[in-house]
Every structure is written in structure tokens, then in C-alpha cells.
Amino acid sequence: MKLGLGGKDGPQIGWCRVSFKVAVQRCTVVTRWLARAAICTGLALACAPSPSSAASPSPLIAGLASGDPVEVPTWQLPKWQRIRDWLASAGPTSDPALTTWTSWATSLRGRPVTERLTAINLRVNQSFRYASDFEVWGVADYWETPTEVIAKKATDCEGFAIFKYWLARLAGVPDDQLFMMVGIIGSTHQMHAVLIAGDAERGYVLDVRTPYVADMATFGDFRLLAAVDLESVKVFIRGSGAAAAPVAFSLN
Asked: How many beta carbons lie within 10 A of that of residue 121, not counting itself?
């Protein structure tokens, strides 16, 4: 790529434009982290551990857990509560914008679970553009319903995971075999969200980064911070006992 226009002593207009663009990008990154700090602080306070809130991790995600989770009701994470209510309601299946998706997902019932999950992961990954919440919504962190994803035609990692969560339920995967998992990719140190489906014997990862459904046993480059389902929010903690501190999280 040519950065400059002109010679050694001539105007470097292209370079200036690139430098300005880089500066704006860096500023945007800093702004995002500051915004997320507020989100993380609020969640940490809301999920302060107590003897009654301690829980054992689901066998499905226990292999990625760094300790026992603090379990809190869904209303303590309002952005998930909104999604949870949408998923649990009868209304979404009658939404005209979702009719095609609904018919397709229900047609998958009866197939082996791996075929259902692979079809869902591949189609959703191919149907929407990946974009940050700042680009789509103008805010640091927003969790979209499938209706909103279809309207915007773009979403980020948790939007992809939520959309797959909805389709997996329609395809007949039981609620107790579904989690949206939030954590950190070890190799890049980036926040990320995926859908987990399966039971104690075998779990599968539906990830926007790949068209393939990964076996949980091979999904090692991930530090689990939280898992959400229709019943609760499980925030994984460092340490144990009364001194344990919750790990707060937010997403790209």
C-alpha cells in the first residue's frame, strides 16, 4: 500500500490520512475499554459471592472452568435478561422477519444433533456480517435479539451466539444442553462469546470464527469467565471460599 504522496520534501497527504485513521482507531479502542470498565465494575458488584450463591459448574463446561461459579439470577445481568425473555416468549416464532428461519430450524428436528448444530453454525456464520457494537449500535456493548440482528444484517460474537441459541432450541436441542459462554481467547487476549450445546458426555462449540462445530474436548484456547442460560448467570471466580473474587466481563 502506498502511504505517501510526493517526494522526500513533498507533501505526505496519504501518510497523514493513515496516521489520523490509526489515531482514531486507537482512541476508539481506549474509549471501548473505559466503557467496559464501568460495565465490569457493575457486574462484579452485582455478583459478589455469598455462601448461598456458590454453585458447581455444569459438567458440560466444567473442563474450562477455573473454579466454582457464583450463580446469580438472570435479572442481575439486564442485557441477558432481555434476551432470555425474548427467547422464552412465544412471540418470536410468529414474527414475519423470522418466519423463514423458524421453518428451517424446525425442519432440522430428527437429524443427529451434530448435523443440526453444524447446519446452524454454518448458515448463521454465512448470513450476517461481523461488526462491532460501536459500528452497528454506537455503544460499547449491546446484546441483540435475532430480530435486531436480521434488521441490521450485522452483529458481533454474542449476537451470533444468541442467534444460534434461538435456532438450536427450535431445532429441538433441550434447554439444559445450551449455554452461551463468555471468556477470553488465550492466544489473542480478546473477549469472545460462543454457543455451547451438548450433554455431560459430549459438548460442542458453535463459533463465529469457524464453519466447523468443535468438540469441547479440543476447545482449549479459552478462559471461561461466565456462562448464561435461561435459568441463571454463572460467573466464574478466582480462588475459593469467602475470599474469592468474581471475574467481571463484557464483550466486543
From this structure: 27
Place of cell 430480530: 147
**Cell numbers found for residue 13:** 497527504
CATH, range 13-246: 3.10.620.30
**How far, CA to CA in Å, does 222 sit from each of 111, 125, 233, 238, 245?**
29, 20, 18, 15, 20
Whole-number pLDDT of residue 244: 37
State the pTM of this model. Answer: 0.74
CB burial of residue 187 (10 Å; 0-12, 13-18, 19+): exposed
* Cβ neighbours for 133, distance < 8 A, ≥ 6 positions apart: 139, 140, 141, 142, 156, 251, 252
CB distance 69 to 234 below 8 Å:
yes
In angstroms, the Cα distances linking 165 to 46, 47, 59, 102, 205 are: 25, 24, 19, 13, 11
Residue 216 clears pLDDT 70, i.e. is over it: yes
DSSP class of 54: B
Rounded Cα distance, 252 and 247, in Å: 16
Query: What's the whole-number mean pLDDT along residues 225-246?
Result: 69
Diameter of the chain measured on Cα atoms: 71
> For residues 218 and 75, is the Cβ–Cβ distance under 8 A?
no
How far apart are alpha carbons 51 and 45 in whole angstroms? 16
**CA 141 from chain center: how many Å?**
11
Spell out the domain ranges in the chain: 13-246
